[in-house]
Fold each of these.
Amino acid sequence: MAAAYKRILLKLSGEALMGDDAFGINREVVGRIVAEIGEISRLGVQVGVVIGGGNIFRGMAGAASGMDRATADYMGMLATVMNAMALSDAMRLQGINSRVQSALVMDQVVEPYIRGKAIRYLDDGKVVIFAAGTGNPFFTTDTAAALRGSEIGAEIVLKATKVDGIYTADPKKDASASRYQRLSFDEAISRNLQVMDATAFALCRDQRLPVNVFSIFKPDALKRVICGEDEGTLVYC
Ligand code: UDP
């Protein structure tokens, strides 16, 4: 199968790494996701990954329990660094060359985010894992994905979720719900469909950066998206 894209930005939620566990990092699940990333990298696709942190800590949850929101958000960003390190280590075990770059500086642990360097790594075929979100509280890793995707000139953001696309209604509650195959940004707004958070959505729309929402738990779905097949929902400009 030939790849339809040369450079992509894959957004993995932290929850993707915990599998059926209640929290944390499930190494078996991580290994499976990494194997799929390795496969698309071997197809010649340059892969940037933005990893979330919801499997460990979310700023909103901290704030809801009385924490200072910004402090809680920094903790959430630190959680994404742990996930990035776990992903990178799983890549090492599978012979996939990767680099972690963090939006928060922590020299002893990971490289800082340097755009030019990230692009050079991508050109060399290395997978670049972007950690610590945007480096700013009050944002999410969806926004980091839109931002880094724009910065590295990705052709598309692939948003890996638990559901295989965007539906007319919640498929768990409504048996007649059907999946949108394609959807424009304007349609998503007018139908009030939640693709990603509002800041991330606005940035992708402004930058004319399409988003494909797909299930990371469906075997080979990532590869199918990469090959331009009907998988998940494509939100286009
Ligand atoms: N976060 C932040 N700024 C960012 C990205 C993330 O403050 O630019 C914090 C925020 O608290 C968020 C947490 O990091 O809840 C984990 O990220 P996110 O919730 O996006 O992870 P996901 O839902 O994708 O696992």
Note: The beta strands are 7-12, 46-51, 98-102, 111-112, 127-131, 156-161, 182-184, 211-215, 233-236.
Amino acid sequence: MSFFSAQKVLCVLYPDPLTGFPPNYSREDIPALTHYPDGQTMPTPSSIDFTGGHLLGSVSGGLGLESFLTTRGHRFVVTSDKDGPDSVFEKELTDADVVISQPFWPGYLTAERIAKAPNLKLAITAGIGSDHVDLQSAIDRDITVCEVTWCNSISVAEHAVMQMLALVRDFIPQYGWVVRSGWNIADAVSRSYDIEGMDVGVVASGRIGLAFLKRMKPFDVNLHYTDRHRLSPEVERELGLTFHENVESLVSVCDAVSIHCPLHPETEHMFNDDLIGKMKRGSYIVNTARGKICDRDAIVRALENGQLAGYAGDVWFPQPPPNDHPWRTMPNHAMTPHTSGTSLSAQARYAAGVREILECWLDGRPIRDEYLIVQGGGLAGTGIHSYTEGNATGGSEEAARFKQS
Ligand code: NAD
């Protein structure tokens, strides 16, 4: 029995593979995990209608929600056509009760779009990071915003470690020599260093930032962090962490910095010309948090003039980035599309988490506090801990300029 009668659930997911939906997978299964590192349980829906390890995050995968929703009498509309006034998303939004989107191919919920959606009561992020929703408008309209906290935090920490090593060791050009049938070792190593002994820092030591620090510890680097919440003395001691009161202090001593704070008004364009100018010449930045935490053109300038030795990450602004976005072609980068949090392993967790949230919502039961960003006209749960009020969606309409080649 549902608390709500027939609801329209509108879901934005990235397009299916250009090569067709996978007929089979490279692995038989994914590890069965029961808890996250702090003891929080994995998502607990009453059941699931999908196979973990399969592609769930694109349109045909539909997060495995279709039969669950339709057998309960709800409407489920899935689209990847999300940008511009003529998009399916914008048209279907006018009578939607619930929107599900994800950060990889975000259905931006701007103030204008929220104003066109009078029935909208719940915006679920299938993943972590709800900056694609104008949180101020959600607060003002009393829309609940929630995400699947923890679902892909470790996935991202693994990717950030990989990208930091890729930058410092200069992996990408070396791979290039191999695939071009070359063997010029002097060229291949002319920008390659060991990370051992370097000073490595994180901006934010939340779930991902702390997991990144733990994974970097065995590399025998000097670890630093800044966050608006200080870690316990035990954790600082165990990992040998140096705490910095502010980001300026952190970047001035680090060789490599990994960014792990959410995007909100306090962090938008944090890495601008001024802050990058305070870094050691030849520093590296890895940003798997959100593209707009960095000033796009300041990053390009710093790579071109050598203030930065390398930049990597998987987050861009907007998403998808226009085909002429300068991060596609700037020197010494090791960017991926926004993939770190949507491995097949992560998809199983966030699909199950979205189902848990929908079951709670439709049955009139509370959503886990950890999942909440906005509720009852204010920040709530993780939103209070990690965000500030306001809007960070400005400029997202530029995503309409992307054309699939
Ligand atoms: P979390 O809530 O556990 O941690 C966020 C941390 O940021 C908190 O400790 C908070 O105090 C800190 N913080 C907030 N504002 C700050 C500021 N101005 N200065 C310093 N610290 C600040 O979240 P998490 O699971 O670690 O995720 C962090 C972010 O990573 C998400 O909000 C999202 O933007 C991004 N993310 C990216 C992907 C991906 O696929 N690339 C996946 C998941 C999350």
Note: The chain has two domains: 8-151+342-398, 153-335.
